[in-house]
User: Fold this.
Amino acid sequence: MIIAVFPGQGSQTPGFLTPWLELDGARERLEQFGAEAQVDLVAAGTEWDADRIRDTRVAQPLIVAASLLSWHALTEAAGTAPGGVAGHSVGEIAALVAAGVLAPSDGMRLVGLRGRAMAEAAAAEQTGMSAVLGGDQDAVLERLSALGLTPANYNGGGQIVAAGALAALAELAATPVPATRVIPLQVVGAFHTAYMAPAVATLGAAAADVTVADPRLTVWSNRDGGVVTDGRGAVDLLVQQVANPVRWDLCMASFAEHGVTGIIELSPAGTLTGLAKRALRGVPTVAVKTPDDLAAAAALLTGEGA
Assistant:
C-alpha cells in the first residue's frame, strides 16, 4: 500500500507556495481556501516573511491549504489516489479531507477556527515547545515530568517534543538529559497539552455541526496510531488531539504493521519523510515540495518507479 502523509505546523517557509500557483486553477483554489479560513493565503504563501507565517492563525490554514493543493495535483497527475492517509497534528485535517471525511470547504473553515482558537489559548500564558533529540526515552520522559513539561509529540526516530512553561523549557535546555540535544521550536504556545483545553471546546462546538462521511481510504489517527473507520469518530479524535500528545511514532509503527510499501509527503514536505527514513528503513519515500516532485510521486503511486 502506498500512503500519503500531511505535515504539521512548522513545516512552512517563506514563499513556498509560489511555484504551486503556476498550476492551472491553483490560485483560484487557494483564494477560495483563504476566504473559508479567513486568511489571505495567496499573500501568506508567496509574500509574507517567516515571522508573519509563524503566527498560528496563519500557519495552520496555510499548511493545510498547501497540502490540499498538492494532493489535488498528485491525484490528477497519477490518475489515482494513495490507499491510505495520515496527518501530523493539523495535518490530520488535510488527511480527513483527502479521505472524503470532510468537504474541502469545511476542512478549511475548521482549520481557520483551529488556528485562531489555539492562538488565543496560547496567548493566555507564556509557553512554548522544544524538540529533544536522542537520549534514552524513559530518562527524557522522567526529566520532562520533573520539570512539569508535557511530551506533546512522540515523533519517533529518537525525537520527542516537550511543551510547557518557557522557564521550564529554558531549564531543560540548560541542563539537558545526557546524550540529548534540545532545540527550541519556532512556535508560540504549548500545543497538544492541557493549555489548549479552551481551543478544544471551541473547535468541538464547530465540528459538531459539520457534515461528515466515513473515510474512503485507510485513515490513521494521531491518538494511538490506530485505523479509524468511522467519520464522526475521526473528527472527534481530531478535536480532542488539540490538547493531547501526537503519537506519530505509533502511526509509523502501524504503517509497518499494515504493510505500507511507500510514503508520499504532501507540501510543505520534508519533515515526515525524514522521520520515516529513520523509523521505516527501506520504505521508499517522496517529499512533494514543489510541482517538480509530482512526477516522482506519481511514479511511486502507480508503480512505474518500481
